[in-house]
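Trying the structure run again after the queue cleared.
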Amino acid sequence: LFLPSGLLVQSLEYNQPADNYTVCQGDNAILSCSIDEEVTRVAWLNRSNILYAGNDKWSIDPRVQLLTNSPAEFSIVIASVDVWDEGLYTCSFQTQAKPHTAQVYLIVHVPARITNISSAVTVNEGSDVSLLCMATGKPEPTVTWRQLRDGFTSEGEYLEITEINRQQAGEYECVTANGVSLADSKRVLITVNYPPTIKDVKDAYPPMGKPALLRCEAMAVPPAEFEWFKDDKHRLFGGLEGLRIRNERTRSMLLIDNVTARHYGNYSCLASNNLGVSNATEEIPFPLSVHGGAAGQVRDVSSAPLRPRPRARVSQQGGD
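Done. Tokens:
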């Protein structure tokens, strides 16, 4: 019979196979021998080692203590059981007729725990990645890898990713469980480096005397460094010619406080990191004017062909 606090071993079942008594590592195990006839001697043994003989303690283990020694019951407790406590325990008692034994096999379950896991990984896009997560426990635990961003899972200690791409970057969680206690989990961060990619850019059409803003946004790991050029030859710096440059983690902004004739033209944004370069060209085109020809004359532009406004252009190149 199983009791809430331990196992009751019936003396009348001494010829039966040993019962199994399962406890979790760290819990207390109570071994109770129910005696239904008069006895002269009684003892609890672990394998061939006597733990208690009547009221006398033979074990040197302080965790083993006597609970009850009465005509009807002989019980001991093993506090904070561990894996080395697992094994066969015997209640041996002598009646007027003959000696008897009753046995129980103590099974110690150990919660699943992660003992070793890969450190954070930084690789270039297209590389192969291998993660390891080792766990212990009893019964043998399962190990599952899960990508937190999209929920992808993989069973087993090893997670192999072939030719990793930037969408596969992020945190990966290793979870181990064996049903004994709550699951154990740890996370590993994978950083994927890749060259800059500039998103679509748009031309600006500010009128004379008004402010203008050009934006250049680039996705890259590590983050890109930005440079601005005018007409593909003059590098621009903030504070000169009424220009301001504001760089953030993923974008750069070129601000012109007051557009004058010298500000019209092509502007190139160059984004670079150690893996490659990407550039985009934006234009502040000269505005269409109705004034032309001789001084004081007004040119009719109703039938004149309009100057096409060129689109922003993006190009890039990256290293392997």
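The mean pLDDT is 85. Worth checking whether this holds up in the mutant runs.
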